[in-house]
Amino acid sequence: MSETVPRSGTAPARPSAGAAPRRLLDSLAPLLRDWLPRQRWFAGKGRPVTGFAPVAATELRPSSAEPGLLHLLVDARQPGRDTDCYQLLLGVRRTLPAPLSGALVGRPRGGPLAGLTVYEALHDPLLADVLLDLLRTPGDLGPLHFERPRGPAVPGSLAPRVLDVEQSNSSLVYGDAYIFKLFRRVAPGTHPELELSRALARADCPRVPTPVAWAGARPDGAAEPYVLGLLQPFVAGAADGWALALRALSEGAAFTREAAALGRATAEVHQALARALPTATLSRTRTEALAAAMTERLHSTARAVPALRPYAPALAAAYTALGALDDTRRIVQRVHGDLHLGQCLCGADGAWHVIDFEGEPARPLAERRRPHPTVRDVAGMLRSFEYAACTHRAPAWAAACRDAYCDGYAEAAGHDPRAERVLLRAYETDKAVYEVLYEARHRPDWLPVPMSAIRRLAAPR
Ligand SMILES: Nc1ncnc2c1ncn2[C@@H]1O[C@H](COP(=O)(O)OP(=O)(O)O)[C@@H](O)[C@H]1O
Ligand SMILES: O=P(O)(O)O[C@H]1O[C@H](CO)[C@@H](O[C@H]2O[C@H](CO)[C@@H](O)[C@H](O)[C@H]2O)[C@H](O)[C@H]1O
């Protein structure tokens, strides 16, 4: 466990050594037990939190300041689940101003924070400003680390606002110029979002916003540093592909022009990733391992979601076919890993940008960093067109978008993903299975959406 030390550089707020982390967490635990599971980004929904352990605690502004700012990395224990480490940024005030009432975490009854009000710091413009200043100034702060690559300076005092969207993490927009993404469930190791967006910048890929600063931590005893968040340019005036697709559907309009452009953008990102990072061939061993991993995910999901069980044997056929592929000329490379319409932003100039390279958030970092055939991302997008169409019962709309997307991809990549029939079917099935679990955990009302794909994919052919 680390205490804070003075930060090198010109830190705006000089932190003091805080209360002992264990005592701090003990006083917060009764509040967190209730508050944490209610957060959209909480990964262990449906199971109680039975205990907390501090990983790191850093007082970025002392609790005696009005407001104080506390950074916590906390292990949350839940029965039947591996321990998850969450990142919390907590404000501390004597009284909470009315505009911040929705950010309340609670009022500790005892310990070092007794009598004070604890709340989500991201909602407090004063504390969001402190965070921006830390990101603008490279240096260490106790276990925390702030880094900025060479490049133009990031201006300070930009008006902050918390992004109010469904997301797996939390994001703060600064003056419509930058966006800071604070990862919520964190783990030691290279983070694919930082790794891939920096690699794409090196490969001169204009499709992906380049990180301008990031935060990390190396708690005592950690084998590797944790990546905690990254600041990148905000694509102002952009609409995401999901919103645009739903709008087209509600207006009875086609979306094939946009789908083809998205296909071209995906291919460009893949080409840049292949330039920037190592590629390999899809050996027989890899193919078999891939099929085995997909099969395992199918069975574990079927155990967790009973609605999937009747379809499991028919779905498994897609993985058997994958395991039997014996052409080893295929390439594997780093891919986006969780590509869907919501990850594609159409800027004011009409150009598509791709964001959120963190992969499927529920999977371990090492697994998310594995190379795959590019068809994996294509399958994700194909599923997304079907998702959108499902909300309007418009299967023909989905089919037209899926074809246009593959046409666009083929035009830019020089090879048609539809030619990889076995791979594409396996990845699409795997994605639909992932979505079944995702929806069962996060949005049970949406479960029928991936289930309709499950029925299609399991149908005899
Ligand atoms: N660079 C950006 N420019 C504009 N909006 C962005 C940018 N990055 C993210 N967003 C917005 O923030 C939302 C959440 O970002 P995302 O990276 O998908 O977070 P999460 O992984 O938590 O779901 C996106 O849906 C998009 O609306
Ligand atoms: O939070 P992330 O954007 O990283 O991704 C997770 O949440 C997504 C939903 O917000 C989820 O995507 C699924 O729903 C989308 C519509 O809301 C749809 O376009 C996608 O095709 C579908 O997979 C994603 O799977 C999950 O990882």
Automatic annotation (TrEMBL):
Sequence ranges assigned to domain Maltokinase N-terminal cap in this UniProt record: 35-124
Keyword Signal: no
Residue ranges, compositional bias (Low complexity): 11-20
Enzyme Commission no: 2.7.1.175
Keywords: ATP-binding, Carbohydrate metabolism, Glycogen biosynthesis, Glycogen metabolism, Kinase, Nucleotide-binding, Transferase
Pathway as given in its UniProt record: Glycan biosynthesis; glycogen biosynthesis
Classification via SUPFAM superfamilies: Protein kinase-like (PK-like)
Reaction equation(s) it catalyzes: D-maltose + ATP = alpha-maltose 1-phosphate + ADP + H(+)
EC class of the enzyme, as a word: transferase
Coiled coil regions in record: none
Region Disordered: start-end pairs: 1-20
Entry's family note: Belongs to the aminoglycoside phosphotransferase family.
Protein name, entry field: Maltokinase
